[in-house]
Amino acid sequence: AFEAWWNIVMAAQMTDAHRRFLQVLMSHGIMEGSEARKLHRHCCEIHKAYYAHDKLDDFIGTINRHLQPLFMQIRKGMSEGDGRAHYALVNLAETEITKMASDYTENELELFRKTMDLIILSENGFASSTEILNLADQLKTKKMKKKEAEQMLKVFVEDKWLSERNGEYTLHTRCIIEMEQYILSNYQDVARKCNICHSLAIQSQVCESCGIVMHLPCVRKYFKAQTEPRCPQCNDFWSCDIPGMSQMDSPSPSKRGRMEKSSLLSSRRC
After folding, report:
1. For residue 22, which of 90, 119, 104, 106 has the smallest C-alpha distance?
2. Phi first, then psi: what are they for 45, rounded to 5°?
3. 163 near 170, Cβ under 8 Å?
4. A single Pfam family, by name (predicted)?
5. CATH number at residue 156
6. pTM (2 decimals)?
7. Contact criterion met (CB below 8 Å) for 231 and 132
């Protein structure tokens, strides 16, 4: 099936520069924006195609038009940690975690789903390794030893489905881009979109008054020039600590919520 799909793409009326770009992106799974821009230039130079440094999105748009009949799309997303742009190839026809089904066993997929549950239902968008490893002997498909579960967590990180920092796990940018619709459909009560960039927000802050959510990088960017941060939706004072803003610069400290553990581990309910 993959070979037939690839042959259709290869036969489409795209230049070799477009095809090379797509092939490299597929091999990486996900690509950071600066790397994608370098690849864009490299592909155009190698194949003597038209190149303009500010036309990457147009270049990708051409590829996406040819991918549309195949229900595939290169999507742009943002790292929730630093706000940098990333690009990933998404299968629009998949309604569940079917992309992973060919790479993992049933109990490995169950471990991932349960890990995703912990992360999305948490207050800060993270789950500790202890919490996840405690799931190992609760799997319905086939129980795992904790050492096996620990190894699988490493594999999920290597495959860019999870990110790990100091024993805390969150969803990798690749996972968020590729599974956004799945998460929004399956976690309707808790999954929310950022009020600023309108993408799925896992690590976020919540307005205490109206309940809108914002990514941490979006919070930082939106409130950067404001002397007193106010919610973009209801205009009430934003009581959460703004990532990257020092205590000296922080407005109305007496009104602020509790301090964040860090900009990466800040609570959604600050």
Report:
1. 90
2. -70, -45
3. yes
4. SMC_Nse1
5. 1.10.10.10
6. 0.82
7. no
Residue with tokens 């699988």, as numbered in its chain: 152
d(CA 144, CA 115): 14
At 122 the pLDDT is 94
Q: Please compute the mean of the pLDDT values over residues 103-113 and round it to a whole number.
A: 94
What is the chain's Cα-based Rg? Answer: 21
Cβ-contact 208, 257 below 8 angstroms? yes
Tell me the residue range of the domain where 129 lies: 106-186
Pair (181, 119) in one structural domain: yes
Domain count, the chain: 3
Cα 67 from Cα 102, distance rounded (Å): 22
Residue 44 has pLDDT above 70, yes or no: yes
